[in-house]
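Narrative of activities, Objective 1.

The group set out to show that a structural description can be obtained from nothing but a protein's sequence at a throughput compatible with the screening campaign. Below is one input-output pair from the validation batch, recorded exactly as produced.
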Amino acid sequence: MKRFSKALSLLVAAAVLMTCVSTSVSATTVSSVEQDESTVELLSVEGVAEGTEVIVSMPEDITSDLAHTGVADEHDEEMAEAIAVATAAPNATQAVDGGLAAEAAALGVNENDLQITSLFNVYVQDHVDGDPVTLTVKTQHDPGTPYIVLHFFDGKWNVNSYGTVGANGTVTFTADRFSPFAIVTVSDTSYGKTSPQTGENVNALLVAAIALAAVASVVAVSGRRVTR
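Output recorded for this entry:
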């Protein structure tokens, strides 16, 4: 009876272990982006008249930030479409029409490691499409980090510019129309999801295999002892 109780205890322990492993594996595949990692802050604007209102909004703030402009719904809907396209792709390269091979090569990075790490909307008061405006924003990336700025219009993501992050995390880009933008860097984390780490998966699978072996061993041993 004591042997059976011990075997039962081992089975329960193995089951708990398997549950923990299963939970940790799923936790590495889907995760929200931390706000402090994706936040973009407007620092300066060039190419607009004095007094022109320019607003950079995170996706969740568009409605409130642009409530007084009369175009909040339009910008919010376009951001929703931009997010849908971005999150449907496994990486930034596949989210962009034509890919990012040339830009990745110029930056000396692997295009398949590029992920969208920030999404933001830009509103420029009374702007006429075709008039260039230059913006400098502060990101949460370290100086020297390779980046690509993407611009969403006509239902797809397009390359705006690329370079390396400046002092204090600054990124400068020029556009002649305004809607959703994204910053792409080499990262394991993408907007709305987290790529699983290979090492973590291997370790998790190894623990799972050990747990399964333990369960099988206990069942086999307890089975032989019961029949005796």
